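A common beginner's mistake is to predict each chain separately and then try to dock the pieces by hand. The better habit, illustrated here, is to supply every component at once so that their relative placement is modeled jointly.
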Amino acid sequence: MGSLKLPTSAFASIPIRSFFHRHQHRRLCLSLKPSASTQSTPKTSTPSPKEKNVINTNNDQKSKPEGTITPRSQDFNAWYLDVIRHAELADYGPVRGTMVIRPYAYAIWEAIQDYLNVKFKETGHSNMYFPQLIPYSFIEKEASHVEGFSPELAVVTIGGGKELEEKLVVRPTSETIVNHMFTQWIDSYRDLPLMVNQWVNVTRWEMRTKPFLRTLEFLWQEGHTAHATPEEAEKEALQMIDVYVKFAYEQAAVPVIVGRKSKVETFAGATRTYTIEAMMGDRKALQAGTSHNLGQNFSIAFGTKFTDESGQKQHVWQTSWAISTRFVGGIIMTHGDDAGLMLPPKLAPIQVVIVPIWKKSEEKVNVLEAAVSVEKVLKTSGIKVKLDDSEQRTPGWKFNFWEMKGVPIRIEIGPRDVSSGTLVVSRRDVPGKQGKVFGISMERSTLESYVKDKLDEIQSSLLEKAEAFRDSNIVDVNSYDELKVAISQGKWARGPWSASETEELKVKEETGATIRCFPFEQPQGTKTCLMTGKPADEVAIFAKSY
Amino acid sequence: MGSLKLPTSAFASIPIRSFFHRHQHRRLCLSLKPSASTQSTPKTSTPSPKEKNVINTNNDQKSKPEGTITPRSQDFNAWYLDVIRHAELADYGPVRGTMVIRPYAYAIWEAIQDYLNVKFKETGHSNMYFPQLIPYSFIEKEASHVEGFSPELAVVTIGGGKELEEKLVVRPTSETIVNHMFTQWIDSYRDLPLMVNQWVNVTRWEMRTKPFLRTLEFLWQEGHTAHATPEEAEKEALQMIDVYVKFAYEQAAVPVIVGRKSKVETFAGATRTYTIEAMMGDRKALQAGTSHNLGQNFSIAFGTKFTDESGQKQHVWQTSWAISTRFVGGIIMTHGDDAGLMLPPKLAPIQVVIVPIWKKSEEKVNVLEAAVSVEKVLKTSGIKVKLDDSEQRTPGWKFNFWEMKGVPIRIEIGPRDVSSGTLVVSRRDVPGKQGKVFGISMERSTLESYVKDKLDEIQSSLLEKAEAFRDSNIVDVNSYDELKVAISQGKWARGPWSASETEELKVKEETGATIRCFPFEQPQGTKTCLMTGKPADEVAIFAKSY
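With all components supplied together, the output reads:
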């Protein structure tokens, strides 16, 4: 990078949505047309301002009313991109590999932030902000860190119209600058533990990008802590991976497997990396969050020392841990189905959508009045509710649209419901009539507790379904041949492993699978390495991954 | 920037805190030593983990127990930097002009975010995220925008180890990339209004920086909206400046003056800029928030069109509006005094600090028990409370420390208070014994309502004090001579203005003052321009500014 070369093709202005378009010809016709059971006269009138502002839904649905989603079973990748486009989750930015996070997906990210922020603060961390521009020399201070990150850097060389003396790196992660500051703040053991977190954007020059899963710039939180003992650092790294596990299970309904990374897969600069690994709908693994015990690697590189209780100078022991917008991709790929997105109630920007139904205009007033009152009841109960009272679309169209957007519960209110003081509740996760319950009372307390129970049920049900799927796709293997069969069937292979890094890399080369982790949950009994036949302490999980 | 020059000094690795240190010799000795009225035996024991984690206070206070703050009246700038250092609000980053926002200041920013996020959503906006890397060509599309921003850009020229074909700008503001995306999302009048906001970092290559007020990178929210008519855009621009006004008055207790910018001072690319201007403690003006009516400037540059109700293609009408971490600097400079920071209760990370006081160890148990119970009562009432039970420092030291950190209320509990079931409440904004009330009952409901009332009183009192200060420092002027006198006295000058831009620039050159705004609140009656003697429609406010 020292010599100045003529421009190469690292930046290319790709026409917008070309990536999406490439996949359009493969789509089946699952069109968003009204279902037979309901209709109303479509009219072209202005939609309510409310509808537009909540999620800015109204572009693709209007310009592409024939919008279709490739069935998941047919082409998982095309399905994923279709869902992202039709549910208006993201768009590509003008710079290759960058992503615009649209309001509906950003609201999921905000729900993730809200939950984690509480947990981070409960566990003693404070939020703060470190600058994103890092002197290039910082990155070079920790040997394995520079090796891991230097191919991925975006570098600022011009500032205020002038060439800079020292090139600046746009933060790919912040361990280096964090340690530079920690060195100034930490003096004695009384300053420890120092426990902070920041919610920021990071930039990594990824060559093969995919919305949410791998983008040139993404959003994340990165926690950074410094401790007086290696035991405390280890405890912290484990505590934070546990926060992630609970988040994944309880909020996202994503049944991750938690474990330790192999040395090959450990973070550049860490002593030990803990990870949560999620199984996507195509059975590929997604590394969904990591927590690193950094040991003294960065504190030695940056001279981050403290005086201990006996008056001796020591380097601090550190951790860092992160979850990113990648998790939003993980949620899409875990729960979605042929109809589109399916969101866990606890993270859904809209938990309940109300679709009023009428044929004659004299029915309209009463139906809308009831719908507004139901909306109010649910909103007061703290439920995230949306009334779709637009007159541009038929109820059937709306059913399909909100199903595609993954809203957990739909409430239908028609003229007959109004006269009986009841409504119809449909579950997103149980397709067709099976998921539909008629005659639920509109009475405040009945309705509130019914809907809350249903949301809880859906939350649990999504987790159970994902767990069953995961468990039926993990195969216990005792030889390399068995491993190869499992991987070739698209499954995860779990087997005893004590072989070398060379052999680990050989598996990757020959099967495409990597060690996702040595899971915390280990089977009892003596084990024999599937590769070498020698004794093994642990089983590892191998899988292809994103 | 086309030709490649040898490196210049735009990046210089300045030793940390050198800027602060430069000012240290000017300090008076306002040392943080125990006050005479209270003592306890200082012990060197480990502080409670809680104390350390909430705000990571314990560095400077330990390494520099003699920490002093320059009196505000003596040197406002040195005072400001001292407060930022001693209250642990920020530090410089390793790259010139960048800033690390430390937990205590970041918590103020979070309180600002919490309030504004609710208001933005109530007014129909959704949060989302646009990438920070913008093709250089985008910046050039809107003529006055490129003129305004090109001297301040940080430019990425290398990505993934290769020279880029097109240079990328690190977002200085996002109008260009927003319009690039809006163009794809907006098709018909039904897609309007489109109203979004993002909370992000922005980078501007400022040459003269000052913590919070002007830094190379800062945090802000930027709202962006598109409308079908100029009237709607104007209404939105006014609505958002009004949100800022209410925030400033009601949350920050900063009595801003709201008005319209002169053409010279209008945002690069806007048709009209509305501003809130705050008077700092040194009577300089701080532009604390702006809302721009962008007209069709960006929509024409980026071809952002919609089909109106009559089927005609039209360019959209737009706004953008922003408040940044600069506001934190504004709060410091509005309310602080010689003792340090003074925070408005509604934005204070800690609203109440409890300092337990004991002499004999047999008193300790009861005092601490009472303190913990008071902490619990206040916490349950939703008050942000901190119990400073560390044994390293004397109560007197703690009094000074928490005063310096600007905590609105201090509660003292000693052995005699415990026996009488009462406590002592001290107000940060009323110094000495005048602000101290003895014998407040510890009984839950009495205590809760007393503290809440006091917090409200302090909030109002800070605003009143700042308003009185502001009003006593704005002078009505009717001639250029009067204006010059007012400015030379460090005041704001308000006078009728209808002169030319040349004359406006002449005022700046000769007095250092600029038109801060044409305030919305205008005096009645005919007006004669202070410069030209010709009729004037409005008065303008002139002041020196940050």
